[in-house]
Amino acid sequence: MSTYWRTFKTAAWLGWEMDSNWTEPWLFVLYSVIKPVAGAFILVLMYIVFVAIGRPQGDPDAFSYMYVGNSFFIFVASVLFGTFQVIQSDREWYQTIRYVYISPISYYVYILGRAASKIAVSVFAVAITLVFGVMFLGVRLHLALTDVPLFLVSTALGLSVLLAGLFYVFCGVLFPLSVLPNWGQAVGRAIPLTYWFDITRRLLTEGSTVNTTLGGYDAPTILLFLVVSSVGFFGLSVLIYKIGEYFARKAGKIDMTTSY
Amino acid sequence: MSVATDRRTDLKYRVGLNLRAVVGRSYPRIVGANREPSWIFFEAFLPLLGIAAYVFIYQFFGLQATAAILGNPPMCGDHVCASVAEQNQYLAAVNANTNALIASVVLGGTMVAFWLNVLWSMASQLYWEKEIGNLQLYMMAPMNRMALLGGMAVGGMVMTSMRAVSTLVAGIFVFGVIFQVANPLLLLAVFFATLIALYGLGMMFASLYLLWGREAWNLSALMEEPIFFSSGFYFPLGGLFRIPGWGPAVAIAGSFIPASIGLDALRQLTLGSTAFGGSLWIFNVTTELEILVGMAVLFLILARYCLAYLETLAKREGKLTSRHQ
To answer: Of A68, A70, B185, B238, which is least packed with CB atoms within 10 Å of its CB?
Structure first.
C-alpha cells in the first residue's frame, strides 16, 4: 500500500510540474483560469445573442442551468482529456514511458496520480468560474449547509468517474436531456455523469424550472444511481485498461512513437 | 563556378527543389494520416459531439422561446401577443433565428478544425520537430525553410478539410441546417483567403513558438477557448458589440485572428445578410474579403521575417536543436 501511495504522490507532483511546463506557478494558474472563464463566456454570449434576437425577456433558469453545467464540465475537460494525454506525452513527446512502465510500480496508480494534479488545478478554475458567474453575471446559486455532505460525496464520485469515460453530449452538461431524442436520453441515463450534473444542479440552483427528465426522482435516489453507475464504470475502466495493456504488450506498442 | 554550384543557383532547379519539399512535407499529412482508418473516428466523429453540444444549446433556447410564445399568456417578445398573426410571426422568427444560430455553430465548427490544426500542427510543429530530433535534419536540408512550412500548411489544410467537410455534412443532414449560397465564387474566395491568412499566421507562430520553447504547450492551450470566444466561433461576432464597455474591445482584439472576419463573411454568404435582422455583422463581405487578403499577405511576410530571425539566432547562439529548453 505504501508503494501505491508513494507512486500516487510522486506522479501527482510530476503531473503538476509537467502540466505547468516548468513555468512560474502564478503564470500557470493564470493560464488555467483564463481558459475555462473564456469557455464560460462563449455560453454567456450564446445566451446574450439569443436573448437579443429571440427572447427579449430572457430565461434566467436556463442560463443558470447552462452555466453551472459548464463550470463543472471544466473537471471533465481537463481530467478526461488530460488523463489520456499522460500516455501520449510520456510515449510521444518525452519518450519516457518505457522507463516508467518497467519500474516496479503500478502504472494504473501512476496514471491516477498524474490525473490528481489536474483535478487540483480544475478545482481552482471551477471555483473562479462559479464566483465570477454569481458576482458579475447574475447566476443564482444556493447551497444549504445540510446539503454539503451530499455535494461532496457526489463530487468525489463524479471525479472518480471522469477517469473512466464520458459522452459529453449525452450527460445534460449544457442542456437538459429532454432536448435529446429518446435514444440519446437512454444513453445519457446509462452514464454516471448525468446523475452527477443533475444532483449538483439540484443542490446549487434549487427551484429551477428546467425540465431535466429526472425530476421524478429525489436527491438520495439520484445519488444511488450515481453510486451504482460509478462502480460499474470504474470496473469497466479497469477492464478496458487491462485489455488495452494486454494488446499493447502483445503487439510491442507500449513505447512506440509515431512522430505524427 | 563548379557544375554543382551552377546547378544550385539555377532558378528552375530551386523552384523544383522547393516544390518537392512542399510535396514531401505535406505527404505524411495527406497520405500518411489516411492510412490509419481510426482518423474517421477521431477526426470526423468525435469533434461532431462537441459541435452537437452547442447545437443542442441553441435548440434548447429555441424550445424555451417557443414555449413562452405558446404559453399562457402567450408572450411575443416582452409583451403579451395581441393576435394569432403576431404569435405566428414571432414563432417563425424564433425558428429562423434558431436555424441561423445552429448554422453559425456548424460553420464555426468547421473553422475550429482549421484553427486547432493551425495551433497544434503548424504553430507547435517546429517545437515538436526539435523535441523528436527532426529539426536539425530540416535545417541541414538544402530547400528554403518557407517550403517546409508551406508543405506543413498544405498538408494540414487538406487533412483538416476532411474533418471540416464531415462537420458541414452532419450540419446539413443531422441538424437540418439550411444554407442559401447566392454567390459561390465569392464564398470560395473568402474561404481560401481565410485559410491562407490563418495558415500564414500559423507559419509565423511556428518560428515564434520555437523561440519561446516550453511555453508552446501553454500558449496553444491558451489560444483555444479564449480565441473561440473573442473570435465568435459559436455565435455571430456582432453579439460582442451588444455588450457595452469591454465587448467591442474583445471583439476588435479577436478580429486579429483571420477566422473571425472569415467566419463573419462566410455566415453572411451562407445565411444571407438579412439573417438576425442584419444587425450582427461587422462589415460587408467585400470589405471583409479585402481585410482577409491583406492579412494573408501580411502574415506570410511576417512568417518569412520570423523564420529569418530564428535562423540568424540559431547560428549565433548555436542551440536551436537543444531539446527540452
So the answer is: B185
* A43 shares contact with chain B (CB less than 8 Å): yes
What is the three-class DSSP state of B75? strand
* Model confidence at A34: pLDDT above 60: yes
Q: What global pTM score does this model have?
A: 0.77
Taking only the tens place, the pLDDT of each residue in A144-188 is: 777 777 777 777 766 666 554 445 566 666 677 777 778 778 878
CA atoms within 13 A on the CB side of B33: 23
Model pLDDT for residues A110-138, shown as the tens digit of each residue: 888 888 888 887 888 888 888 888 887 77
Q: Is A257 among the domain residues?
A: no
3-state secondary structure (DSSP) of residue B76: strand
Instruction: Classify B47 as helix, strand or coil.
Output: helix
| Cis preceding linkage at B73, omega within 30 | yes
Residues A23, B218: C-beta atoms closer than 8 Å = yes
Q: Give ipTM to 2 decimals.
A: 0.78
How far CA B200 is from CA of B41, B92, B311, in Å, comes to 29, 42, 18
Q: How many CB atoms lie within 10 A of CB B319?
A: 9
Residue A163 lies in a domain: yes
Whether chain B has a CB inside 8 Å of the CB on A217: the answer is no
- Check B225 against A59: CB less than 8 A apart: no
Enclosing H/E stretch for B79: strand B79-80
Higher pLDDT, B80 or A165: B80
Question: Percent helix, strand and coil across chain B, each rounded to 5?
Answer: 80, 0, 20
- Looking at the domain assignment, is residue A70 inside a domain? yes
What gap in Å lies between CA B234 and CA B226, rounded to an integer?
12
Domain enclosing residue A98, as ranges: 2-251
Most confident of the following: A91-95, B111-115, B285-289: B285-289
pLDDT of residue A177: 76
Q: Supply the pLDDT for residue A165.
A: 43
Q: Is A63 on the interface with B (CB under 8 A)?
A: no
| Burial of residue B215 (number of CB atoms within 10 Å: 0-12, 13-18, 19+) | middle
Would residue A142 count as lying in a domain? Answer: yes
Residue with cell 504547450: B217
Q: What is the mean pLDDT of residues A93-114?
A: 84
Residue B76 main-chain phi, psi, to 5 deg: -105, 100
Q: Do A36 and B225 touch (CB under 8 A)?
A: yes
Q: Between residues 92 and 111 of chain A, which touch chain B (CB distance below 8 Å)?
A: 92-93
Is the Cβ of A84 closer than 8 Å to some Cβ of chain B? Answer: no
Q: Write the residue in B78, B243, B277 that is nearest to A48 by C-beta.
A: B243
> Which residues of chain B make contact with A56, given a CB cutoff of 8 A?
77-78
pLDDT beyond 80 at B194: yes
Residues in A touching B128 (Cβ below 8 Å): 93
Q: Based on the structure, what is the number of domains in chain A?
A: 1
